[in-house]
Amino acid sequence: MKKICCLIFLCSFICADNHDAWKKYERNITQKPDQFEEQAPNFQDSLNNSLAQVLEFGNSADQTSSNFGFDSQSFELKNMNLLYENRFGVLLFQKEFMINQEYLDYSNGLINRYQQGKILFGLNGFADRVQEKNSYSIGTELGFSSYFRAYTNYYIFDQDKLSDEQKKNLQLGFAFVLPIYTPLGFDLSKDNEKVRYTLNYSPFSIFNFSLSQQKLKNPAQINDTDTSLHFGFKLNFKENFLKQLKRDQNKPFELDQYEFYKRKKL
């Protein structure tokens, strides 16, 4: 009798232990797996990374940027390669391409920059093709600290239909801000056809406005003056609004000998 009771007790214990094991197993298999947030791939970033792998040489100064306009059906590409560097300066190769429904434009040039402390000086030469018009240019640039920038570009157009005077165009300009009040700045640009003055005011990094006046050089002495006023806002919704109102975030110029050389279109 004692043996029978012990056998019944043992069977009950085994069944109970197996029952708990089944419950534990059921709880494990019914638990929902961790869900990972699906992120849509960024087409622009993927395109830039793919182009960078092809066009860049592996130097840290190499840069590639592109923009694909779905609405305008256009594509723009900018690439910069570092060819040589020493403690005095750098030699860069800049390339730009622009494709739309009508034209295939390009610009290739060498940029030689020297930087010593707060002073930057550069020489450059470019070969361009814009709207089926070929041109060549040589230029200079000068920068001092974060307060002053100046440039000159001398263009020679390879067009038989143009007169000798029209085949050459000198473009120059400068921009500066007041060292004692950096939010206020002035910009001037001039070529054979027009002169443009711009007054910029940017008290905070999120707000700026500019007052511009452009005068066309008209042989007929007709008053061709255009004045415009522009307002701009730039907000970062991920950052505290009050922190964006600090004036010390306003940096008018940056001395960077590796940056793209920006030429104003004629």
Write structural notes for this entry.
Helix content is 16%, strand content 48%. It has 266 residues and is of the alpha+beta class. The chain has a 12-stranded antiparallel β-sheet with strand order 1-2-3-4-5-6-7-8-9-10-11-12, with helices on one face. The N terminus is likely disordered.
Break the fold down into its secondary structure elements and pairings.
Layout: H1 2-30, H2 43-55, E1 63-69, E2 74-85, E3 89-99, E4 104-116, E5 119-130, E6 133-144, E7 148-157, E8 168-178, E9 181-190, E10 194-204, E11 207-216, E12 225-233
Antiparallel strand pairs: 1-2, 2-3, 3-4, 4-5, 5-6, 6-7, 7-8, 8-9, 9-10, 10-11, 11-12
Features:
single chain; disordered N terminus; 266 residues; 16% helix; 2 helices; alpha+beta; 48% strand; twelve-stranded antiparallel sheet; globular
How many strand units? 12
Shape: globular
Strand content: over 45%
Order of helices and strands: HHEEEEEEEEEEEE
**Chain-averaged pLDDT:** 78
Structural class: alpha+beta
Reported for the largest beta sheet, the result is: 12 strands, antiparallel
- The share of residues in helices is 10-25%
Quick synopsis:
This protein is α+β, with helices and mostly antiparallel strands and 266 residues long.
